[in-house]
Amino acid sequence: MIQFKENIIIAPYTVFKIGGPADFFCEVKNKEELKEALAWANGKGIKVFIIGGGSNILVSDNGFRGLAILNNIKGILAVLRGDFSEITFGAGEEWDDFVNYAVERGFAGVECLSGIPGKVGAALMQNIGAYGQSVDKAFARATVIDIKTGEERIFQKEECGLSYRTSRFKTTDRGRYVIADVTFSLKSGDPMVSYHDLKSYFIDGSKKPILTEVRNAVLEIRNKKGMLVTGGGNFLKSAGSFFVNPIIPKDAIGKLRPLAAACNASNPNQCKEPWSWEQKDGRYKISAACLMNLAGFEKGMRTGSVGISSYHTLALVNYGEATASEVKNLALEIQKAVKEKFGIDLEIEPDII
Ligand SMILES: Cc1cc2nc3c(=O)[nH]c(=O)nc-3n(C[C@H](O)[C@H](O)[C@H](O)COP(=O)(O)OP(=O)(O)OC[C@H]3O[C@@H](n4cnc5c(N)ncnc54)[C@H](O)[C@@H]3O)c2cc1C
């Protein structure tokens, strides 16, 4: 039997530690409880909002008018299919527990995604990525529940609209489904060491690293950057990267390079190479951190209780008792400066509730 509580402050359920009260709040531990909670909210005619690990949300100081559902749907199932293993994790399982599970069993494909905070469900919604890997490469299908009808559906990978840090659950079907479990298709293989930070980490090694070594390297690098919330890591109150790396057309990179060079010349090392990456379609992904630096927003900057992480330019941080409004104001200031200087719109990554 689910307990529906009233007037519960959301801040403790978020990594930012920001957010006012939800009118109603409950925790669900399986699909049946989730369906019950959705039916309860529908019966009352109120909105629902799903909370996973709270690591990619900035909740308003006024809170949420409706039912906040803490997703704690657990469960692990592994099935062998030829060369591949299909591994299903409940959406409320910790993402890093899934990565650890895969790496320990010798499955390649998610080792670089070690240490990303949050739950498995949101990892799919956001198509999380780091150090050259992203969820879409390993993902097979997901079971979802329709928020309005309670109907259960299965979406195969090609139906999920996965691309850079997004999916149908974040775009066309935003607020329509709750992800209940996620199935990955993995096989044993070598780890990926393609990203510059990881390459530098292993530069002196005489032999190729194994999966566990790459996982440990990623955890160590993340910890040094204050980006490791799991496993007692050294972390700050944030939502990780606050802005997505923008992808710009090929002709725009030509205009950007001299602008960046001019800014760098007046204040060297603001934008270290590599800061742009050519995409398969010929466009360029640009480091949002680099654009921020060039626009005058650097690591460690603070205004009152909000600021920029001293380890990682992209992470806006709650240094004390910051409010959501303060974080939003700083984000707006950054977006305005980057737009004025480079004509590029920085898109906010976390969900603003
Ligand atoms: C220190 C730090 C480092 C980070 N590093 C990275 C990184 O390297 N790469 C990266 O991609 N991200 C990173 N992030 C962002 C974040 O960890 C991911 O986006 C993560 O997947 C969010 O998971 P969550 O469970 O915390 O989601 P939440 O913050 O709880 O929710 C995020 C959104 O998903 C929705 N949601 C949650 N669960 C479900 C569900 N089951 N069904 C439907 N909707 C749901 C919520 O309603 C909300 O809109 C980082 C964040 C922090 C704080």
TrEMBL record:
Pathway: Cell wall biogenesis; peptidoglycan biosynthesis. GO terms for molecular function: FAD binding; UDP-N-acetylmuramate dehydrogenase activity. Cell wall formation. It is an enzyme of class 1 (oxidoreductase). One of its GO terms (biological process) is regulation of cell shape. Its cofactor is FAD. Its EC number is 1.3.1.98. Belongs to the MurB family. GO terms for cellular component: cytosol. The keyword Cell cycle applies. It catalyses: UDP-N-acetyl-alpha-D-muramate + NADP(+) = UDP-N-acetyl-3-O-(1-carboxyvinyl)-alpha-D-glucosamine + NADPH + H(+). This is UDP-N-acetylenolpyruvoylglucosamine reductase.
